[in-house]
């Protein structure tokens, strides 16, 4: 957590992490229900206090990732062990634990050595994710972490098609997971996977009385 702002563990493209302070300045002091039709990585809901959270995204994989991670509240080490086991199975780098990238690779490719080191293992993990019906959210999470710019990208056939990125499972990823689980344990959340219009249409809004000036 940097400067009191928690970052989403999805490192989602278009994430509102850098805008959280500005967004919060427009919110009331007490929020009964925070309604997010485009929750994305969840940086806003992580950093805003409310009694209840209604969180929606039309991307089923985004919601699937959130639900998977939230399922590990109170079992953080179990999640880390599961993720690290997958990383080891595919021979990916894990700088959180140790630096395994060869020095000569860093010298020859000073800006892209993680991509060079992880490419083969990443491609195998991606192929296994697709072959398994793209339902394994742990593998999808790691594809997001090791993929180019941490994106969720699918081709016209609906298959995950992001190439490997010059990134790694590092301390920042570990910290983001830790604070996500810690904060979500204190929040009453409901997740939805709908078109935003349907999501908003189904909500029974409460009238807010305006202050008399």
Discrete helix count: 9
Number of strands: 3
The general outline is globular
Low-confidence stretches: none
State the CATH superfamily name. Answer: Adenine-specific Methyltransferase, Domain 2
Q: What integer is the average pLDDT? A: 93
Helix content: 40-55%
Order of helices and strands: HEHEHHHHHHEH
Briefly, what CATH class? Mainly Alpha
- Distance from N terminus to C terminus (CA atoms, Å) equals 40 Å
Instruction: Give the strand line-up of the largest sheet.
Output: 1-2-3
Structural class: mainly alpha
Task: Give me the Rg, rounded.
Answer: 19 Å
Which oligomeric form is depicted? single chain
Strand proportion: 5-15%
Biggest beta sheet summary: 3 strands, parallel
CATH topology: Adenine-specific Methyltransferase, domain 2
Structure write-up:
This protein has helices spanning 20-24, 43-46, 60-70, 76-89, 103-108, 113-131, 137-146, 171-184, 196-201; strands spanning 33-36, 52-56, 189-192. By secondary structure, it is mainly α. Helix 2 links the parallel strand 1 and strand 2. The chain has a single domain, classed as Adenine-specific Methyltransferase, domain 2 (Orthogonal Bundle). It is built from 9 helices and 3 strands.
Topology record:
Layout: H1 20-24, E1 33-36, H2 43-46, E2 52-56, H3 60-70, H4 76-89, H5 103-108, H6 113-131, H7 137-146, H8 171-184, E3 189-192, H9 196-201
Helix pairs in contact: 3-7, 6-7
